[in-house]
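During the reporting period the student researcher (J.K.) took over the structure-prediction task from the postdoctoral fellow and processed the backlog of single-chain submissions. One of the processed entries is reproduced below for the supervisory committee.
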Amino acid sequence: MNIIQGIYAAFLGLFIGYLKEAGGSIAIPIVFHAFFNIFGSFAGDSMYYHMEQPFFFLLWLTVGVLLTYAGIFLFQYGISVRDHADIG
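J.K. obtained the following structure tokens:
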């Protein structure tokens, strides 16, 4: 009954569904979901503990941006591999 968790889980589910449909494989969504769960398990408490300090805020912001970029890159790479496999 955690409303915040329900909201982000709904959006995450929609995004993972999009990854599956656009990527054509279930492998990318499985890896994304695994990394999301691992990150939440190990970084959850430490993320909120120091958020009032600017260094830790910028650290987690940077980590989030880099992980987002890596996810977009891997997604686009998966689409290009799929497209080349369809041609050949």
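The committee noted the following: The two ends are 49 Å apart (CA to CA).
J.K. will present the remaining backlog at the next meeting.
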